[in-house]
Design goal:
The chain is mainly β and about 220 residues long. It has helices at about 1-20, 210-215; strands at about 25-35, 45, 60, 65, 70, 75-80, 80-85, 95, 105-110, 115-120, 125-130, 135-140, 145-150, 155-160, 165-170, 180-185, 195-200. It folds into two domains: about 1-50 and about 145-200, Carboxypeptidase-like, regulatory domain (Immunoglobulin-like, Sandwich); about 60-140, Cupredoxins -  blue copper proteins (Immunoglobulin-like, Sandwich). The chain is built from two helices and 17 strands. The strands form five sheets. Strands 6-12-11-8-9 form a five-stranded mixed sheet, with no helix packed on it. It has a four-stranded antiparallel sheet with strand order 13-2-15-16, with no helix packed on it.
Length: about 220
């Protein structure tokens, strides 16, 4: 009787132990566009339940402004990290964003702004210049592990496909520019024969680089 009772107690504990284990492993994810071509510069983030954001690097990331372009025009940062927006052009810029994750404004300035901007919400921030409409930059603020796809459209991340999901975002996607596509890794249709995963993002060609100022030879001095 005692032995039977002991087994009844231990069995649920073993079940709880094994179901709580994480079986994360490095896995390759392939991202393609709607034409079946590898899609570089896509951000892939692992979505974990009850995850804790890592402490951000205190050093601000640089998004410069050169030849009326943001350089680089896409940066990936950790939630809570800051970004500095120096202006290396010989004209002034007015940097701003209306994105829900971080609306902000740096009014017309030259050189280096007085302070950097902290991005404390997970999401996507689209950055523009109020003087030069063609200047568009993107900041992806990650809460979990994330990477940008290489020229082959691939990343390698640690995750557990039984419980985790992944989000994929691209600056030229046709859906809302601040929206991310969520993929369920338990769906067998997304698994490759080699143990990786493959996802498709529908994109469109970016608009031509042209602004009111460019058309009329105007410089904001």
């Amino acid at each position: 009787m005692f032995r039977l009772l002991r087994l009844k107690i231990i069995t649920p504990l073993l079940t709880l132990f094994f179901t709580s284990l994480s079986f994360s492993a490095p896995t390759t994810i392939q991202v393609n566009d709607n034409n079946g071509q590898p899609l570089k510069m896509a951000v892939v983030e692992v979505i974990k339940q009850n995850s804790v954001t890592a402490k951000p690097d205190p050093t601000p990331v640089i998004m410069d402004q050169v030849n009326k372009r943001f350089l680089p025009d896409l940066i990936l940062i950790t939630q809570g990290q800051s970004v500095s927006f120096p202006n290396s052009d010989n004209i002034r810029h007015h940097v701003y964003s209306f994105s829900e994750a971080k609306p902000f404004e740096l009014k017309l300035y030259a050189g280096k702004p007085k302070s950097s901007i902290e991005f404390d919400q997970n999401g996507v921030v689209i950055v523009g210049c109020n003087i030069h409409d063609s200047m568009i930059g993107s900041i992806y603020i990650a809460k979990n592990s994330a990477m940008i796809t290489d020229t082959d459209g691939t990343v390698t991340l640690d995750f557990d496909p039984a419980v985790d999901q992944v989000s994929v975002w691209h600056p030229h996607q046709v859906i809302n520019p601040e929206e991310r596509e969520i993929f369920d890794l338990s769906d067998p249709s997304s698994a490759d024969s080699d143990g990786g995963y493959s996802f498709t993002i529908t994109t469109a060609a970016p608009p031509p680089r042209d602004t009111f100022g460019d058309s009329f030879g105007y410089d904001a001095n």
